[in-house]
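Dear colleague,

Following up on yesterday's call, I've attached the two folding results inline so they're easy to grep. Please treat them as preliminary; we haven't cross-checked anything against experimental data yet. The first protein's sequence and structure tokens come first.
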Amino acid sequence: ETVLADCEISVDEGWRNFRIPIGNGALGAPVRLDIEQPGEYMIGPCEFVPTSAQTRTSIVWVLIDTLRQDHVHCYGYERETSPNIDAFRKDAILFTHLVPQSSLTKPSVASMFSSTYPPTHGAEDGPEVVRAGLPNIATQLNLAGYESRGISSNINGQPKYNYGNEFNGWIDNDSTDKGMADDKTIFDRAIEMLRFVQGRPSFLYIHAMGPHAPYAPPAPYDTRFIDRAQLMMDTPDAAMGKYDGEIFYTDEQFGRFIAEMKTLGVYDESLILVTADHGEEFGEHGQM
């Protein structure tokens, strides 16, 4: 008896994609796959993927929610909040003038997904959804032969608002609890997606939430830019220090993802975009 894979899923996980090597048999030859599971289960669509070299560039879009441009070190910020983004910048084009279409996530991301302004797509706030019939990045890439997969920890960045339904796969990563959304988990799952689509043209959208309020970076990132006494303070300086700690933590997770791309040999052949949906205010205009 040959066991090709022993796959385990935790009770709270619900769903996972598996990629199982089946050898180098002749093209068109029959393959039998027996699956055993002690409890109830459901099998989604199965597909066979040839292992020939990929010929088209894959696309990875990393969106870091609420990341201010002027708090990224390679944009001139005095604090070294972003060593991995800084290193990535050496292989990339640094855009210096980009204007988000809103200071809110939903309309900003909807504008980027649909290439339309908020009054056109209609998803400006609250329960509003993107109007039907507009261009959509996942749809266009699917038509071009790309497999599109997304993951987001933002409640306003989910398919129910009509701008993620076209993805072939989507993961909601603790979007109902901003305090629990951990960018380590986001990038762990993003690495799983990256491995799953390896060898075929793909579009991966990764929406990280680290810098978003509440500012609560895990130790030791919480005191990287402020001392421990400031952690309980409710001042702009204290908030900014914790915010910068969140950026550093997310940057470290981004670095793990880039390292995995290099390990898999897909970094040089991929189009990688890193951006934000909007910034954050620390009293510059009288508000927090």
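Below is the second protein, in the same order (sequence, then structure):
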Amino acid sequence: RGSESGFPDCVCVRPGQLYFLELKIGTKKPTQAQVNWISLLNTIPGVVAAVIWPRDWETWHVRLAGREL
């Protein structure tokens, strides 16, 4: 069945951390459904939801690996 329209592409879990990431390429912008999901998920304590583009991938790779730049 798949997920509901606009639900983020990736769900990443680390101890004590839950991330929902919408992945974009080029100049594609998030749809209104994606923006709504990201906004809703960010209201939950302990959850980080974000839209990321290729320019952000290294930062997020480091963050998800548990390291800081």
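For the second protein, one point worth flagging: DSSP finds two helices and three strands in the chain.

Best wishes,
A.L.
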